[in-house]
Design goal:
22% strand; eleven-stranded mixed β-sheet; 310 residues; disordered C terminus; 13 helices; 11 strands
Length: 310
């Protein structure tokens, strides 16, 4: 399996490359460095392509000197389609990107949004490399908030957490933002809910969440925390994450049909406003029709071999 890291040679991308390199080094996984240029290539490669290709090879060369197995690819087209096709082609298990479009309260889909819903592999959006560096050096566990609920996408995120532990120890706060009234109805309550029902429901939810987390790798320490929902779930999760000073929030994502659904989702809220890194675990793969629209460029054809020193 492979890690893919998208870069545009910005400060944010530099952090993303550093994090991807740390993860690849920990598990001896191949690393792909990729840059996506807008539009389709017209004719032979021009100065822009040469500049980007040279930069990719330079960065890859530094990482190869550190003992990593690194390949590079220069792609064209819509970033989410190009990355989706590459990840499928190289059987990537993780995509790492920087946060080059962190704009609070945006009413429009950002490139990060499009990547989050256009790529069928887990995605880490890096806000800072510092916590990951300390984690990779074994100085401390990675502090993680895992958002949980009753959905199957949440279950997949919980399962992915176990795989993340292969890179190093984790200290996990599993948080469920819930509504007592909704939970009472979900469990078939046909009578008005009493005040005493809330405590019993909270006990059942805590038991269920605890049971679901049992069996995580031994280098994962965890605790369960319930929070009563008070409106915007995304905003509430961000408040908890800031209060707990976590390094990364992990969310399972639901397939969203239509731009409005995406822009009103919890994951969009978190991507727009989180100050910490964010990991999104897709609940299912990209639909076949979406992949059919992807750029026809193949990683096998675009793969650039290491250059020999002169």
């Amino acid at each position: 399996m492979t890690i893919v890291c998208a870069t545009h040679f910005t400060a944010s991308s530099t952090d993303a490359v550093a994090v991807a390199a740390h993860l690849a080094r920990r598990t001896a996984q191949p690393l792909w460095l990729v840059c996506v240029l807008p539009g389709l290539p017209l004719g032979p490669s021009g100065p822009r392509e040469k500049t980007v290709s040279d930069a990719l090879h330079l960065e890859a060369g530094v990482l190869r000197e550190q003992g990593l197995e690194v390949e590079v690819a220069l792609l064209h087209g819509k970033v989410e389609r190009a990355l989706g096709r590459l990840c499928a082609d190289v059987r990537a298990q993780l995509l790492v990107i920087g946060d080059t479009s962190h704009t609070k309260n945006s009413l429009f889909a950002t490139p990060v949004d499009r990547i989050a819903y256009g790529v069928a592999v887990p995605l880490i959006v890096v806000r800072s490399k510092k916590p990951f560096e300390a984690w990779a050096k074994g100085e401390r566990p990675l502090e993680v908030l895992l958002a949980i609920d009753h959905t199957w996408s949440s279950a997949l995120a919980r399962e992915w957490l176990g795989g993340l532990a292969a890179y190093g120890p984790l200290n996990v706060l599993a948080t469920h933002v819930w509504s007592p009234a909704d939970e009472h109805s979900r469990r078939g309550g046909d009578k008005p809910m009493l005040d005493s029902d809330e405590a019993s429901l909270a006990e059942v939810l805590t038991h269920d969440a605890t049971a679901a987390l049992v069996g995580l790798p031994p280098n994962v320490t965890w605790r369960v925390q319930l929070e009563i929902g008070r409106g915007n779930i995304g905003e509430q999760l961000l408040t908890i994450a800031a209060r707990e000073r976590v390094d990364m929030m992990i969310l399972g994502t639901h397939p969203q049909k239509g731009l409005l659904a995406r822009l009103t989702s919890v994951s969009h809220e978190v991507l727009q406003n989180a100050l910490m890194s964010v990991a999104l675990v897709p609940g299912e793969g990209v639909p076949a029709e979406a992949m059919a629209r992807a750029t026809p460029s193949s990683a096998r054809g675009l793969k650039e071999r290491p250059r020999r020193s002169r």
